[in-house]
Structures are given as structure tokens and as C-alpha cells.
Amino acid sequence: MATKPKRYTVTQGISPRPDDKWFTAEVKPNGSMRRVSSKHLPLRETREEAEDDLVLWLARKVHTASYQAQYVYGAAYDSLRAELKERRG
Fold it and tell me: What is the DSSP string of 29-80?
């Protein structure tokens, strides 16, 4: 049986307040979320910073472990990397 790719999202949690930080969470098959704990995925002030962290973290994961992951909003890994590269100039 093939393993489904893990899905990730950037969120402020289930009941966010305007001053809440952004973080990366794994989306489980039943729709629940669990925060991903990594020194490469710190809490961030803006969604964009957290998304950039996620892209770079996935790049490390894919490169080091041949691990395939998908971003929950449907964008493919390569297009996320391209978007990040374009945003950074």
C-alpha cells in the first residue's frame, strides 16, 4: 500500500486573534491539524514569512530524504519554490 504524501498548511490555529503568530501545521486525513515542531519552522509575525519557512523546510526534506509533500492550498512544491525565488528577487 502506497503512503499518501503529507499535507501542510500555514495557519494561526483554530480560533485566531489578530495578534496571533503564524505557524506550520500538518493536516491529517480527518482534517485536524498538528503543529510541526522544527527549529526551521519558528512562529512568525506574517503569513508570508511562515510560508517562506515552509518552502525552505520542504526543500530540505525533499532533498535529503526523497520525501514528497504537498502544500494544502494545492500549489505544487516546484511552483512554491519559484514563487519564493521570485518574491525574494
Answer: TTS-EEE---TTS--BSSHHHHHHHHHHHHHHHHHHH---EEETTS--HHHH
